[in-house]
Amino acid sequence: MGSSKQQPRRGNTRQRIQDVALELFSEQGYEKTSLREIAERLEVTKAALYYHFKTKEDILVSLFEDLTRPMDELIAWGAEQPHSLETKQEVLRRYSDALSGAAPLFRFMQENQATVRELSVGDAFKKRMIALFDILKEPDAPLTDQVRCVSALFTMHAGMFALQDVEGDPEEKRKAVLEVAMDLVAQAHGGA
Amino acid sequence: MGSSKQQPRRGNTRQRIQDVALELFSEQGYEKTSLREIAERLEVTKAALYYHFKTKEDILVSLFEDLTRPMDELIAWGAEQPHSLETKQEVLRRYSDALSGAAPLFRFMQENQATVRELSVGDAFKKRMIALFDILKEPDAPLTDQVRCVSALFTMHAGMFALQDVEGDPEEKRKAVLEVAMDLVAQAHGGA
Amino acid sequence: MGSSKQQPRRGNTRQRIQDVALELFSEQGYEKTSLREIAERLEVTKAALYYHFKTKEDILVSLFEDLTRPMDELIAWGAEQPHSLETKQEVLRRYSDALSGAAPLFRFMQENQATVRELSVGDAFKKRMIALFDILKEPDAPLTDQVRCVSALFTMHAGMFALQDVEGDPEEKRKAVLEVAMDLVAQAHGGA
Amino acid sequence: MGSSKQQPRRGNTRQRIQDVALELFSEQGYEKTSLREIAERLEVTKAALYYHFKTKEDILVSLFEDLTRPMDELIAWGAEQPHSLETKQEVLRRYSDALSGAAPLFRFMQENQATVRELSVGDAFKKRMIALFDILKEPDAPLTDQVRCVSALFTMHAGMFALQDVEGDPEEKRKAVLEVAMDLVAQAHGGA
DNA sequence: TATGAATGAGGTTTCATTCAT
DNA sequence: CATGAATGAAACCTCATTCAT
User: Fold this and answer.
1) Chains D, A in contact, 3 or more Cβ pairs below 8 Å
2) Which nucleotide is nearest, taking the CA of residue D56 and each C1'?
3) Which residues carry the record's DNA-binding region feature (chains A, B, C, D) (predicted)?
4) Among residues 8-37 of chain D, which lie with CB inside 8 Å of chain C?
5) Residue A152, pLDDT score
6) Nearest C-alpha neighbor of B17 from the set A169, B51, B29
7) Which of A1, B73, C87, D4 could form a disulfide with C81 if both were Cys (CB 3.0 to 4.6 A apart)?
8) What is the DSSP string of C139-182?
9) What pLDDT was estimated at residue C165?
């Protein structure tokens, strides 16, 4: 407390870097966000960033690892359940929750696909998508129903951001998005 | 004619720049594609690009303008039709055609949203999306149906790329995507 | 003519970069010479260096290629001659001439072996040494005579610099160095 | 003793730093070896190095001082002896022994002359060379014989490394090198 | 004896852009 | 219609070093 100009910088710097980085990455994109910018916001030198992370990409990787753990667990759980509609719905419900806990990261992923594709997190992300897709779709579903499942996924990822201009409270939007996704998956499940 | 060793290279350089640029932009992203790279592929100097285009962004703008004209016309037409289901379906059908004629550009738009948002084409793109959305949705549609319309749009844009790993012939995929989009819009129309 | 501050910079920049680089590399070493330093001496920006050379190492490579051509030819010639003492002496004589035409480069090579070993020119240099060694030594020479040949080579490379503190005219020093080298090789030739 | 998981790590850290540093310096060169690298190999932090040595250069200086003491003594002894051939030969013999006890350091000195020249050890090394040279050569020896003495020195320093590719057992190589050096000095002594 | 956290200076490289020819 | 030469800004990253604990 008090007005010491230079507080002793406790052990939270790593976390603060992640916070600022995620904010900037998701606002401006990965390439357009320079380490200088991140450092300046934190009133730290660039070299300090390199004390905590080996490379720029490493910052992103760390964010991804920290924020997508719940999804990993969810997918692992889902993959072991029976392929029933109930399972699928439960997965969607929980996925929706997880998403809103890591919204900025997913906005980032959505809007920086070209960049992310070349990065190691791109692979991880793609694998997750495929795993989810395999949970939602029936083994020999016709093309149309496969599209429905993909569409459900996209709707959940992009829906929130696309609805930013639409008036209404965020929680209601989330429910609406979830409902449409559930619907699509239900149709695909029935149509098999 | 005469004894030119080089390829004919008529007044088509501008076009060739656009072709290569679109290919690279959509493959690697806008920021990761340098003018040097474009120039090298064309076996031309960077300075030559500046004879044909004022800036890097200008290349992108020109691509956008040239390739989205059909959509502009479609939207203008659609906005004047009655808000019937038939109109909406007709718009979706024609939009699907237009999309497959400019697939790389749309892939680019989809995968570089963060970049594009700051550029002038970002605005134009967003306006188009909103215009389309206004054609598809009923004026006072409930949130869920609005999501369905947004979802239909996203499905069309992203569907093709998302289905790259799924086996099947492209034209059939396109039809499947269109069918799901039509379905969503029909539900939204009926549910109003 | 006259005192224009900024002469039009003719097509000699590449050459001037090489000159300055060689001077600095040989004075201070490769790692301790920064591109900033080279650029400043030439009153040019760092980026200009990159117009003419792809990397820092490339500058060195170009120097090596340009300055060691005569040696390559000499070695190629020597390899085809009979293994007589006359051949060996002729090679030494001509090598001594070639060396004094590229003295700064060889001083650099001598004094930056650790650095150069990791660089592509290191390999080229080593190969040349081995080729020369093979010309000078008899196929089954005893170890001592092999050492004499190596020693002759080293004497020629390092001799000039090591004698900097000794008083005397450079041309005479060169002759003395050559004489000792010739002697060593003659002993080795006779001793086989 | 006790249940320490780590290696004993007594008060020998200073020594271990020197060992690793010498290994890396001689393998990669002084500039290319960073303190981070040394610290990592020792599983210690960079700051720990600064507890034992004031600067990076200090590590090198300490190595030099510790490893060249025998030579200092040898040179001091030699300077007081009569300038006879026997003295010279004795000096060479003992120098050869001393060299093989500190081979990596001398390899380092040989291969990093450019770097070392600016450092304090450079001076010390040069002074030693001159002192040795003064022992080996006759006061008014003709240029050629001076070259022979320099050459003898170079042969001993560089010979071992240059012969790495030649087959044969190290101890025999050392003897061959010594023999050639003795020969050169004998010629110089006789020729005066 | 050592570490954790940070700094300041500087390194090489890349980029979009300009302009005289 | 195009090139050759260059620039200024900025990028990512590494290094030796410091200091409170």
Assistant:
1) no
2) F16
3) 34-53
4) 28-32
5) 96
6) B51
7) C87
8) TT--HHHHHHHHHHHHHHHHHHHHTTTS-S-HHHHHHHHHHHHH
9) 83
Residues of chain B contacting A150 with CB distance shorter than 8 Å:
155, 158-159, 162-163
Claim to verify: residue A109 and residue A146 sit in the same structural domain: yes
- Is pLDDT at B6 greater than 50 in this prediction? no
* Positions in chain F where some atom is under 7 Å from a protein CB: 1-21
**Mean pLDDT of chain B, nearest integer:** 91
Tell me: the pLDDT tens digits for C20-29? 999 999 999 9
Residue D98, pLDDT score: 94
Query: pLDDT tens digits for B77-128?
Result: 999 999 999 999 999 999 999 999 899 999 999 999 999 999 999 999 999 9
Q: What's the structural domain count of chain B?
A: 2
CA of D167 to C1' of E11 (A): 41
Residues of A in contact with B165 (CB under 8 A): 130
My answer on whether D105 and D61 are in the same domain is yes
Both A35 and A64 in one domain: the answer is no
Cα(A30)–Cα(B31) distance, rounded to whole angstroms? Answer: 10
Residues A82 and A39 placed together within one structural domain of the fold: no
What pLDDT digit, counting tens, does each position of D152-174 carry? 999 999 888 888 888 889 999 99
Comparing CB atoms, the residue among C111, C151, C179 nearest residue D180 is C151
pLDDT tens per residue across span D97-111: 999 999 999 999 999
Q: Are residues B6 and B79 in the same domain?
A: no
Q: Find the CATH number of the domain harbouring B150.
A: 1.10.357
The verdict on a CB contact (< 8 Å) between B176 and A147 is yes
Cβ-contact A180, B144 below 8 angstroms: yes
Name the residue in chain D with its Cα closest to that of C134: D166
In this prediction, residue D54 carries a pLDDT of 97
Q: Which residues lie closer than 8 Å to A25 by C-beta, 6 or more apart?
A: A33, A60, A63, A108, A112
Domain containing residue C34:
1-54
Q: Which of C9, C35, C54 is the last residue of a domain?
A: C54
Digit-coded pLDDT (tens) for C39-66 = 999 999 999 999 999 999 999 999 999 9
Q: Are residues C16 and C97 in the same domain?
A: no
Average pLDDT, chain A: 92
Q: Which residue is nearest to nucleotide E20 (CA to C1')?
A: C8
Q: Do D147 and C177 touch (CB under 8 A)?
A: yes
Is A150 in Cβ contact with B154 (below 8 Å)? no
Q: Determine what percent of chain D is predicted with pLDDT higher than 70.
A: 94
CB D116 within 8 A of CB D64: no
Q: Hey, is the C-beta of B40 within 8 angstroms of any chain A C-beta?
A: no
Percentage of residues in chain C with pLDDT exceeding 70?
94
Protein residue minimizing CA–C1' distance to E19 = B47
Q: Round to a whole number and report the distance in Å from the CA of C109 to the C1' of E12.
A: 22
pLDDT band at C8 (very low <50, low <70, confident <90, very high): very low
Report the CATH number that the domain containing residue A48 is assigned in CATH: 1.10.10.60
Find, in chain A, the residue whose alpha carbon is nearest to that of B24.
A114
B136-155: pLDDT as tens digits: 999 999 999 999 999 999 99
Minimal Cα distance from A115: which residue of B?
B29
| Long-range contacts, stretch B55-64, CB < 8 angstroms, 24+ apart | B57/B119, B57/B120, B59/B17, B59/B18, B59/B21, B60/B21, B60/B25, B60/B30, B60/B119, B60/B121, B61/B119, B61/B120, B61/B121, B62/B18, B63/B18, B63/B21, B63/B22, B63/B25, B63/B105, B64/B105, B64/B121, B64/B124, B64/B125
Q: In the listed set C14, C34, C54, which residue is the last one of a domain according to the structure?
A: C54
